[in-house]
């Protein structure tokens, strides 16, 4: 069974941190670029950060640059998103998605939200509120 499962969401206060995890199963993880996306009520989906299949390249949206860090451990089939200095506007459902490394030419293109990823998780809620 091929799937992506996110975890690590929760309720935090502004300025605090969270680590999200995305665990893959059922496909050859090493060949896939992975992205984190988010969807907040009343707002468009946003590509937050993406990482290449090897982990050698990363991309961040301007809204999270300097606060979020994406990483991956291919031995554990896991991608992480470390989120620091969280703000209320970071509140959203965060989900991860995977595309084969040959599908898009750049990570920026990978990070454009769309319906047709190779694989996509169900999401985890992140709420930042005082």
The DSSP helix count reads 1
Write down how many β-strands occur, each being a DSSP E stretch of 2 or more residues. Answer: 11
Low-confidence stretches: none
Strand content: over 45%
Average pLDDT reading: 96
Assign the structural class, choosing from mainly alpha, mainly beta, alpha/beta, alpha+beta, or little secondary structure: mainly beta
Helix content: under 10%
What does the radius of gyration come to? 14 Å
Q: Outline, from the CA principal axes?
A: globular
N-to-C series of helices and strands? EEEEEEEEEHEE
Largest sheet: 7 strands, mixed
Distance between the termini: 39 Å
Short description:
By secondary structure, the chain is mainly β.
How would you describe this structure to a colleague?
With 130 residues, the protein is mainly beta. Helix content is 3%, strand content 47%. It is built from one helix and eleven strands. Strands 2, 4, 5, 6, 9, 10 and 11 form a seven-stranded mixed β-sheet that branches. Strands 1-3-8-7 form a four-stranded antiparallel β-sheet, with no helix packed on it. The radius of gyration is 14 Å and the shape is globular.
Explain the layout of strands and helices:
Elements: E1 3-7, E2 10-12, E3 18-25, E4 32-39, E5 46-51, E6 58-60, E7 68-73, E8 78-83, E9 92-100, H1 107-110, E10 119-120, E11 124-128
